[in-house]
Amino acid sequence: MIRRGVFFIALALLPLAATTSPVAAGTLQGRTIERDTEAGVGTTVFLFGYGQATTSAANNYSYTFTSLAAQTYTVSANLPPGYDHMEYSICTNATGACHTEATWVDSPTYTAQVTVPASGFVDVWWRFTLPTTHVFDFDNQPPFVDMPEAFPPSNVSGGAAVTTQSPRSGTKTMQIFGSDGATNESYAYFLLATVDIPVTSQTKLEYWIQPLVPLGRYVAVDLLFEDGSYLRDTGVVDQYGVRVHPFFQGAGGKLLLNRYQRVTADIGSCFAGHRIVQVILGYDQPANTGWFNTLVDDIKIYEGADNLPPLPPAGFAWVQGTKVDQNDQPFADSNAVIDPLGSGSTCGASYTSQSGSATACNSAVNPYFAKSALFTDGYVSLESKVPSGRDALVSVCTSGTGYPGQYECLSHPTDSYCRPSQTNTTATIKIWLLPNRTPSYIDVWWRYVPEAQVGSYPACDAGSMPRRVATSGLPSGSHGDVDADGYLTVADGVRALRCAKGLTIGTPGSCLPAADFDLSGQVTVSDGVQILRLADGRSV
After folding, report:
1. HSE (side-chain half, CA atoms, 13 Å) at 357
2. Nearest alpha-carbon partner for 55 in 39, 44, 64
3. For site-directed labelling of 396, which of 116, 273, 279, 301 has its Cα 20 to 30 A away?
4. What distance in Å separates the CA atoms of residue 438 and residue 252, rounded to the nearest whole number?
5. Whether 432 contacts 421, CB under 8 Å
6. Mean pLDDT score of the chain, rounded to an integer?
7. How does strand 85-92 pair with strand 105-106?
8. pLDDT, tens digit, 9 for 90 and up, residues 444-468
9. What would the pLDDT profile of 189-220 be if each residue is shown by its tens digit?
């Protein structure tokens, strides 16, 4: 997925039915517009393997690629800043009025497959939607003021209040805390906001949660609707298929301690046509007693696709990415083939276009979407063929995920790239996953640079992460370098967590003594967390 910021200039309202003159045969053309106003929006359109074009007021927000052979192409558009949803409409040998509401198609991958006819042109219009977003980040609320109860609690003493402790963003976050005193029925729900938000088929809920103690996992955002129904009492699930209810979220096995994690749910699928009247935060856990303490931040109710793929089949992970050159421009070369390794792995132009015969993504597939087999030792592995005169770099996204090892993000700054293991014309990577947790997707970009430039990038460790924190700077006798490459990286921390759970980690490396960071004689979750913190540039 390609996301780059561009400036745009609003154009006076242009009716969708307005036509442009058809151009010569063998041409791909189109316009870029805003959905609600139909005004032009500036962005960049890419024709993979051919070039790119920028739309602006100077060219009536239109683009043209000429002298094209009659075949199928992949075309992509950048999502302009401030917009959160993209669609495309395709007409062949026609333009203007042919783009009706029925011809628009959602484009969560920001790409479209188009066929240029043997004689004529194909007209591809892109339109973008401004978000309708309601954000509750608590930064404008006074701290340490208790939230009112949404309804009377049962066997729980506690509260919810705005705090300055460890916000995910801004200066404040919401903390829910208390004591659970019963083993048959225990819950407490607190009112965060009274609202009036219409729900459409595209309405989504998103929030970030950081449990601080084990019982803190049994917390979730709840919504009350105008007919008296609650989100928690429905079958609505999050991106992992876990029901959005405090108890099921805690029992679902996806929430880790001391890290913010994203939870998102499609509420429009169940409540389209209703209205949200309250935003609620609840704890609900009937079986155990004890303390609970959790931070919740950046609650968002918004319109549009969240671009998360369906859950991968059992035994596989989704891996997606883009192939670029040294200038981050789309890279097309017949030798730049991405191959997910392992039995049953496939590759295609989308998550829904996988086929058993497409075992690798050729140069025409960019961005690529792979169904990659999970190996016994807890990793996925991919290969890339490397074109002559270039070397491959790889970036596995970890920035913005809430914690290392999650990978569900789209950020690939230059310092995130490293040199993977390469033999002749093939580069190979492994990506270790957190114990018992398969992310919604793993975002992996490949950058193919001239051979003379590759030396300025660090080598990758055994888990395809840049080597930055050298063990030579740590106290003598320190452990944590699981793969024994002289550096502490995210891959070391993830593999230490696998050790702590009694899972295999494969080679290179061993659990003891390497993963025993605190030299206690055994590998614990604390060891893995401390290694992750150091690899992330934080203190322990």
Report:
1. 0
2. 44
3. 301
4. 13
5. no
6. 84
7. antiparallel
8. 989 999 999 999 999 888 778 787 7
9. 999 999 989 888 888 999 989 999 999 999 99
- Output the six-digit token pair for 495: 């593999």
The pLDDT value given to residue 540: 63
Beta-ladder partners of 76: 46, 111
CB atoms within 10 A of CB 60: 14
DSSP codes joined into one string, 7-53: ---------TT-------SSEEEEEEEETTT--B---EEEETTTEEE
Contact (CB, 8 A) for 459 and 422: no
CA atoms 405, 407, 411, 417: torsion sign: positive
Distance (Å, whole) CA 367 – CA 321: 6
Strands 149-154 and 187-198: antiparallel
Count the neighbouring beta carbons within 10 Å of the beta carbon of residue 235: 9
The H helix count followed by the E strand count for the chain is 4, 31
Please check the confidence at residue 399 and state whether its pLDDT lies above 80.
Answer: no
Q: Is 428 exposed, middle or buried (0-12, 13-18, 19+ CB in 10 A)?
A: middle
Torsion angles phi and psi, residue 424, rounded to 5: 55, -110
SS3 at position 385: strand
CA distances from 60 to 28, 92, 98, 306 (A): 16, 20, 18, 30
With bands split at pLDDT 50, 70 and 90, how would you rate the model's confidence at 97?
A: confident
* pTM of the predicted model as reported, rounded to 2 decimal places: 0.52
CA–CA separation, 529 and 540 (whole Å): 9
